[in-house]
Amino acid sequence: MEKHANALVAHYLRSHGYTNTLSAFEQELGVRFNPNKPLDNDESLDSILADRINYLESIGSSSGVDYKDEDEVNKLDTIVHSDLIKSKKIELPHWSITIPNVHQTLNLGTLSALIISSSYFNAIINDKAYNLAIFLTNTRYLFIIDLDTNQIVLSKFDVFGNGQQIKTVIGIDGTSHIVLCDMNGNIASTALLPDNSSDTLQFILSLVTSPLKLHRRLITDFKFLSFNDALNPKLIGYFASIGWDSRITVGRVLQNIDDENSIDFDIIGDYKLFTNPTCLLILQDTKTNLPIVIVGRLDSSLLTLFTITSHNDSKLVELAKLSLNDSEFSSHSFQPMAITEISNVSSLNNDKIITVGTDHIPYMRLITVVVPSIHEIIKPEDDKEEILFSELTKLYESNKENTESFQSNTQILRSYIFSNFNSLSPQDKYSNAILLSRPNCSGIWIPGDDGKLRGFDLRSGTVFETLDSNDGRAKSAFIGKYGLNSQFEVMAVCGAVDKKISIWKCNT
């Protein structure tokens, strides 16, 4: 039986021209298949499968049962692209066949403490690169793991030293700096330093800087965008944050000129929304290099786009609203809960592509939309930067209140939806929506409430991989890189129920 099945597979590979795969198949089995030898029953794998499918379809039609599988659930949801999307000729790549082949369960030894925040950190410390994972527990412990060696390189209790619980921790890639967001709307920073007293690789934290008030209440999310400016060498990048005070705050991150282990935060401006924001993303406009901040909020299917008037004398300005709903007169049927960028799409010009996870029940929907360039939104009379910056300043002057209003003249961008799929990832109204975009833009990973980690192909609308990750829903997760030159993909999913950290690695 097994010998016959192997011969069928070999014949299929040869007849379809998969010569490299056939060679690998023969090498695995240690058998050489004779191309001139006919199959035992004169039936190929193609004909057997076709016959089997016809049989199942005949059973389904006679018994009134629909045998559609998961791969077919999104066929009816494929939308007709608008003329605007067609003109852009965007083509997303298929799911990369490389999948995680190493699974580890991390035990931080904290008596089953809940991981409330996790993030990937590509750190540069003493001119050496490290692939680090940052974990924060509800017992006020901060752990940092070296993803290349799986070793704990830092364990710190009560980082602030005053009993204050930290809500979110992120590292600023390409540096040694770490940003800390507490429960009262404040941010501070510290830096990783080598522990010279240890025989193994260990880090210590520099003195935590004085906190800066960003929000009146809890900071729910914080994002950072690296940026290099020859005219301002102190500028490290831009940040954006959202909080329970219904505000979005945008600012700069600057290197402290007196202390290389310290950074400063400079607030550009804030904006008051109608309702609490739910998700946040910060992108870089391809043509102007200005940051584009995208925010979703409760009770609205519109994303609000912000930018700044220029890199120098900056003001925060509401750029436009991007519709996730095809219905022109309904913006409250659902709301966005997670956003991720689909980067490195070769067919893009100056646009960006993002995927939004919605609050639909029982399954999250994935809406992929095009984010146009600032030039396309503003439509200046000339391509000169000075004219564009002038138009942005006029836009700021028209709404100095920086408060969302029903009388606002902010334009709504429609017909930018690329696809709308059922993710098949279960959720309810208490779920913590998470989307993990793969580094090579070939799909996304979705941690579901059933403990499964699903690999979703945004081009075909199908679930390509389903991995058993945790027992129940996820509290936080991240995707990053590890290995020599950071060429391999790594994911970490922190369970809200089982309190386990599942780490998935691709080492091929």
UniProtKB/TrEMBL annotation:
Superkingdom in the source lineage: Eukaryota
Range of residues in the leader sequence: none
Pfam families: LisH (PF08513)
InterPro entries: LisH, WD40_repeat_dom_sf
Entry protein name: LisH domain-containing protein
Organism, as annotated: Pichia kluyveri
